[in-house]
Amino acid sequence: MGRAPCCEKVGLNRGPWTNEEDQLLINYINENGHGNWRALPKKAGLLRCGKSCRLRWTNYLRPDIKRGNFTKEEEDAIIQLHQELGNKWSTIASRLAGRTDNEIKNVWHTHLKKRLDNQPEETKRQRTRKRSKKIDTSEQPVKNNSAIKDNNNDKNNDGDQEDIIMKETNSPSQSSETTSTVTSSSCTSSINDDTLEKFLDDDFWADVLSGNLSNMDANHLPQVNGIGIEEHKTYPLLPTSPVLLDLDGFEYFDPNKSQDDEMDFWCNYLARDGELQELLSNV
DNA sequence: AAAAGTATCAACCGCTCTTGA
DNA sequence: CTCAAGAGCGGTTGATACTTT
Known about the structure:
- This protein is 46% helix and 3% strand.
- The N and C termini lie far apart (72 Å).
- The longest helix is centred in the middle third of the chain and has 16 residues, at 101-116.
- The protein contains 13 helices and two strands, in the order αααααααααααββαα.
- The protein is elongated.
- A hairpin with a 7-residue loop joins strand 1 (232-235) and strand 2 (243-246).
- The protein is an all-alpha fold.
- The structure holds a DNA duplex.
């Protein structure tokens, strides 16, 4: 039968909101709340439909919204929650303080999904190449137009990207360990004796450190601990010596570290895995 | 420097769910 | 119980900024 539109749209503004419109909406809601979205625009003096007002408020103007780049912890949380809940963006958003369903949905489609998908190898390489030109140990992607667009409305962003507060703490992946950055949920813990031998083989590490990786079965690393989810990543497991990996060839290991240090690093790292620990004990 | 390609994100659309008469 | 209105949700689009060629 079809239902009537939420409001008469003829003569109403559409598209991006102006500062004046934002201010009208903020002022009205601050004084009166938003009991009835449909009636709100008229009362607030806005030439918008109620739906548009609600969206603008919930996704952008609400004072408790945290804007700015997603932290690694937030991204990991989204990935995990998406695995549990699917595309329940509003439910996911309800577990991430200050984030909106729309924002999470956008991040998922533009960033996280690609990270998890089995991308065509060429695309992965392209991305890696792109990023290689600006390798930085910072995990924060550079956001572009939002930073410009937001400059008038970003008053709620205090700039602290590390203050994520999980509203609920029932997520097992959200340990407070200092090493949680690497506790990828994609860890498969699959390792065999051959793989283990590689990690204990000096020649292997010589290849790794010299950049001569032709003999290396790179597939083993991702299988062991989930590395490989991203092209670049810092692994601050060892507080004094993070290692930057480029998984599209493992181009770069910390040049300041000796081969022994590097080997120790990985053995220590991999030894965290219970299965590997067991294997190590049998060596 | 310009064109083409790509990434990002605010906003919209249409559907479902909820509520109340 | 039924139905209509309002609210909410997820998918999609389009404008814009950025990057590459």
